[in-house]
UniProtKB/TrEMBL annotation:
One Pfam family from the record: F-box
Classification via PROSITE patterns: FBOX (PS50181)
Species: Cynoglossus semilaevis
Superkingdom per UniProt: Eukaryota
All copies of domain F-box, residue ranges: 91-137
Protein name: G protein-coupled receptor kinase 7a
InterPro entries named in the record: F-box-like_dom_sf, F-box_dom
Amino acid sequence: MASLLTDPLFEISGVGRPPNKNFYYFSVTKKGVIWRWWKISLRAVDRYSRPGEVKESHQDFLDDSWMQSEVSVVFGHRILLYTKALCHGHYDYLDHLSDSLLLRIINYLELEDVEQLGQTSHRFRQLCGSEQFWEQAVRKCCNTVSDEVASLALEVGWRRIFFTSKLQLQKLISQRAAGQQGPVPTFRFGSSH
């Protein structure tokens, strides 16, 4: 599993909280942490300030209350807790898997579980709502997907196709073939597919 981990394990950058305008960068690598800062000031006295950098091992970071305080102030307490967990060796392997592999895994979940997974993080919300996921879901629940349905899905989206009954799909495809464009009706999950 360790081979799945890429370097850096985590990185974040941003501007300090007002009135601070300094720019900060924090990174957790496999071997340690890197804290960088660039002083941004309109004062002439600070014009020639150089950027700063501190590199520490994981253990040194865990013992360094000053750097932990800086990370917490700039990026928040949740980021501090997450990076401390990384330094302790508690890795989130799912974060390091490719989207295509995660989509294959998600495809085995029940729809209710997919909805809950989508609420856990921004990345999972994007994956669980993606056209690729819904295309997989349609292809999984239907033995075959006709070219007409696939073409319609490109227009209205695979999620909408998933929640539309077969009868309504046939009606929509025939309207489309006749040149009539009407609204795509949607039905709750469990209607005849």
